[in-house]
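ok so for the tutorial part 2 we go from a plain amino acid sequence to predicted structure tokens. step 1 is just haveing the sequence, like this:
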Amino acid sequence: MAEVENTWSFERIYDEFKTPIYNFIYHLVGNREQADDLTQDTFLKAFRALPKMDASLKLSAWLYRIATNTAYDALRRRKLIVWMPWQELDHEPADLESADPQETIETTELVRQALRLMPPTYRAALLLYTQQGFTYAEISQTLGIAESGVKMYLSRARHSFREHYRDLDSGQPNPPKGTSR
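step 2 — the prediction. this is what the tokens look like for a chain of 181 residues:
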């Protein structure tokens, strides 16, 4: 059994994944300092476990699994889950020249609020799929759910997002019961 460290140096892994792992954790915990600390914890755990891993390891899914567990542990410890908006939403309106800046800001805020109201597990699945480009198999491995369940998670995440966005857009002041903040 070949070990992972034969093909991956820890420095190479850190350089390649530090920014995406930090961004992922930041989206989950909503605090830059805590995200920085949890990113360091994630890579420390990975460094310790790397020599024991098989060469067939799907490295990115493995790292995101460690990051997810590390963030969830921190959130459980503080007993308050805060889901922050996607970092500046990584996209702009199609036609910036004719877009009304106020309308763009209002839409962005509605998107952020809708994302905050989504159940944490669905939000994580949606982030991994849309922001990180993970496949169903990688999401399955990262979140510890059956691959057949990923499609359901993503479907429910999209439905949850649409529902919350529609409610917020229509001016409904209170989120529906059973949502997490």
